[in-house]
Amino acid sequence: MSRFTKYDGGDPLAPPVDLAEALDAIGQDVMAGYSPEHAMREFLRRGSSDQAGLDELARRVAEKRREILQRNNLDGTMREVRELLDKAVLAERGQLARDTTMDDGDRAFREVVLDNLSPSTAAAVSELASYDWQSSQAREAYGEIKDLLGRELLDQRFAGMKQALEGATDEDRAAVNEMLSDLNDLLEKHAAGGVTDEEFGDFMDKHGDFFPENPRDMDELLDSLAQRAAAAQRMMNSMTPEQRQELMELSQQAFGSPQLMEQLARMDANLQALRPGEDWSGSESFEGDQGMGLGDGTGALQDLAQLDALADQLAQSHRGARLDDVDLDALAQQLGADAAVSARTLQDLERALRDSGYLKRGSDGELRLSPRAMRQLGKALLRDVAERMSGRSGARETRTTGLAGEPSGASRRWEFGDTEPWDVPRTITNAVLRQHGSSPVRIQVDDIEVVETEARTQAAVALLVDTSFSMAMDGRWVPMKRTALALHQLVRSRFRGDDLQLIAFGRHAQVMEIEELTGLDARWDKGTNLHHGLLLANRFFRKHPNAQPVLLVVTDGEPTAHLEADGEVWFSYPPHPLTISHAVRELDAASRLGAQVTFFRLGEDPGLARFIDSMARRVGGRMVSPELDDLGAAVVGSYLGSRGPASSYRDHFGDWGGGRGFWV
Fold first, then answer.
1. 322 beta partners
2. Whether the Cβ atoms of residue 232 and residue 300 lie closer than 8 Å to each other
3. C-alpha angle 83/84/86, rounded to 5°?
């Protein structure tokens, strides 16, 4: 037998999820000190510019839950019973007043019975159980009470029974009792040792009309019945003691047969034994004015349980939580199809982030940004830097690689080992002239000419970034990392012949890979050890004797620490002359190595400005004082300005940073 279900695989024609915004947001959080795992979770919570996140879905879940509790209360069945009772009593009083043939003593007795009914609805219904109604309308209204109670009690356990059994006949009620008896036998046999597929199939063939959800096996039947029965029990727990007492008394009148209550109690006991993990003891506080019947109230409790489960799934708070845990069907049922679509998109996004290679799990089990993700993030930062440097809308991104140099306008014969691009017009012209204009034109090695380029000098670039506590305290931590990543991407992608070393200096200095620097958490140790940073930079320069040294220093404070001869860090604030002298000595050493120096001063401290300016002038370097948002553009601009003629720099990026090729 084939079974068909609704397709839930999402839109098969939908484009793949766009990871660009996600990677950018995750990268920003990682640079702010969060782990990639935490950063990914935060992005999924916030969502994107056009995509609701987990927090928005969780807010809607909480709002739906609050709305159910604030709109409804649980006395709907009692109100309906009271209305039917009042209708029956009023009709009976009218009949007694109109019937002129009735014995006066009998009339007086009946009026006394009606006048002295208990104020309790349940007690009044019980007191009238043996009353001989004179009004057919009153008799019918009173009979509806028993029918209503029976349908409500069944609707508590089997959704839809209230409507299905409206106007039920004695045969219908007998069928219900038979179904309950067979169901209890089935449950007890399952508890004793199990039910075969054949026995389950026989039961469904006989009573399947009572189960529109069409369970496929015994476990599905148990789950469905137990969830509904547990919700019914939670509804009873949510009532006041007076409401529970009245309902229990009224229940004995259901269908005029106590057997119904016996079978339902037996079923509840069987289900509780078979599914003890359901919430049988919980309760809710309903505060609204809209009364719900027993079936509707049980449905509301089921909705609340489903909403609670969704809230837990959307919270993603337990270890190993994945968005695949979110029940999309339940989300669509509670919040609508749009919410399910949003959740599915987030699931696809999480899956793509994990499976696309942008995040990798290290030996310690923690997620990290992969080199591929670092390149993608670096490209985005580099584009942002280029836009800032261009100073005009629509400026194109530079495509120069830095390996072949700038075209001089001339060409020359190709020689073995040349990597310059071909001069195509000159090459074809040579071939045509050699063949005296005959066709087809066949190019030979001797025909090839290449574009002449100006010589490029390889650079050894040391980027020193201040990682002292003031950088984190004053909000300069992330811009510093963005700058390092943008420069790293530029060198690795466009100027592969150059060597770049990243040096972080706080209380002491250390060489870092870009992944390590990007993931570096804020450091709160006091100390700005420029001396140690310059020592490492000079060591790097000496390893590249044939390259042009370029020293770029990003800092927001004067040197307050230096290394002693024994390798220990010596700290003093305000800056001690000895610390200053150690830093100046290493700066002079960099100058003797031929380094071109640029300081990037952050902050408005005039004393720092005077100190940095004097340091820069001492070695023929420059001081730049960019705003935080322009730090990346300033550093990259300085590097590009030192890579070639001013015309190339200005053509691509404008003249924001001066654009002079001051060491070529």
1. none
2. no
3. 65
Residue 127 · residue 110 · CB < 8 Å: no
pLDDT at position 257 over 80: no
For the record, the structure tokens of 648 come out as 């190339």
Give the Cβ contact number of residue 406 at 10 Å.
17
CA distance 421 to 306: 66
Extract the tokens encoding 571: 């700290």
* Burial zone of 260 (CB within 10 Å; 0-12 exposed, 13-18 middle, 19+ buried): buried
> Strands, DSSP E only, in 55-180?
72-73
Q: How far is CA 524 from the centre of its chain?
A: 30
Contact 559, 532 (CB under 8 A): no
Residue 497 is predicted with a pLDDT of: 82
Question: In a 3-state reduction of DSSP, which class is residue 137?
Answer: helix
Listed in sequence order, the DSSP H helices in 286-336 are 294-315, 328-335
Peptide bond preceding 574 in cis form (omega within 30 of 0) = yes
Torsion sign over Cα 527, 528, 531, 534 = positive
Confidence of residue 84 (pLDDT cuts 50, 70, 90): very high
**Which residues are paired to 407 by β-bridges?**
453
**201-224: per-residue pLDDT in tens?**
999 999 988 888 889 999 999 999
Amino acid present at 210 = F
Q: Could you give the CA distance from residue 226 to residue 268 in angstroms, rounded to a whole number? A: 8
Q: Beta-carbon neighbour count of residue 248 at 10 Å? A: 12
Cβ burial, residue 530 (10 Å; 0-12/13-18/19+): buried
Rg of the Cα atoms in the chain: 41
Tokens of 279: 């919430």
**Residue 265 to residues 30, 157, 239, 256, 443: CA-CA distances in angstroms?**
57, 11, 18, 16, 96
For every residue of 264-290, DSSP letters joined together read HHHHHHHHHHH-TTS--S-------SE
CB contact at 8 A, 368 and 45: no
**CA 234, 239, 243 angle in degrees (round to 5)?**
135
CB 400 within 8 A of CB 651: no
Residue environment code for 646-660, b if the CB has 16+ CB neighbours within 10 A, otherwise e: eebbbebbbebbebe
Q: Partners of 462 in the beta sheet?
A: 501, 551
The per-residue pLDDT for 398 is 36
The string of DSSP letters for 58-92 reads: HHHHHHHHHHHHHHEES-HHHHHHHHHHHHHHHHH
